[in-house]
Amino acid sequence: MPPSAPSRRDHLGPQPTGQLATALALAAKGVPVLPLRVGKAPFNNCPTCAKNTCGGRPNMKQAGPCTCPHPCHAWAAATTNPDILTSPAWASAWRQATAVAYHPAGARLTVVDLDHADAITWARAHLPPTRTVPTTRGQHWIYLGTMPSTNGVRPGIDIKSRMAYARWRGVGTGRITALTDAVRALAVRPTPARPRAEALPAPVPDGQGPCPHRTPAYLARGLTMAEQRITEATSGVHATVYRTFLAVLSTHGRCGCLTDTHITRLFTAAQTKGETERHCTDAWANARTALGL
């Protein structure tokens, strides 16, 4: 009889072990996985994808392979495809891997990463009980459902769900609870103090009265378009936020019609995309400086 065709996994041996075996077991259960190198970090982009010249994953919002076959792009490299996991392009990474990570949102999960004992104490008092997984310094609390990922929501507490990865540390104990408003509220930043509208210079344009916009609808449409521009940004969020702030201020910053409520809307849209309060404040100040306000 002719010899059987070689398996796609022959280059890794007939029985994968170690990190790869763990990854394959998770992938078989529908959990997208990727290898981590020393320091719990993902593998750097290969030369083809250096500095994201390849364009990255589609909109960088979904996990899965790009045209590059290597485990690039951190969380977005996570996959459940065993042929990709055992491919020659991933073999070197698995040989160097010190841990397995997974994309929580890809498995419809959210991880509340509690980094120390004080964070755990706070969670027990304020969050619904759920499955817990011990970590080196604290615990992962696992909830069913997805939400935006945010670091530093409280001292020692990070949220890992969409567009993030978490280190696999075992199944844990307890029953998984559905994501609740108490958990979602962690990602909502307190509204920072905004510069008051009267602090903005308000010269009167020649021949156009106190405001060149004539109707409140003009400003309302402008603010809605600005929020939409920030919300729909798929890359370069920092730059998009700054350019949007600049556009709003160049149109509405000198007539005095911007209020604290308007500014809050812009800051909230930016923070929903992952911007910090400091980034928002700096971007606003830089835009005002650029316009001489």
What does this protein look like?
The protein is α+β, with helices and mostly antiparallel strands and 293 residues long. The protein is 33% helix and 14% strand. The chain has nine helices and ten strands. Strands 4, 5, 6, 7, 8 and 10 form a six-stranded mixed beta sheet that branches. It has a four-stranded antiparallel beta sheet with strand order 2-1-3-9. Helix 6 (216-231) packs parallel to helix 8 (260-272) and helix 7 crosses helix 9. The longest helix has 16 residues, at 216-231. It is globular and about 65 Å long. The model is unreliable at 1-14 and 196-209 (pLDDT under 50).
Give Rg in angstroms.
Answer: 24 Å
Treating each run of at least 4 consecutive H or I residues as one helix, how many helices?
9
For the secondary structure, the number of strands is 10
- Mean pLDDT, to the nearest integer, reads 81
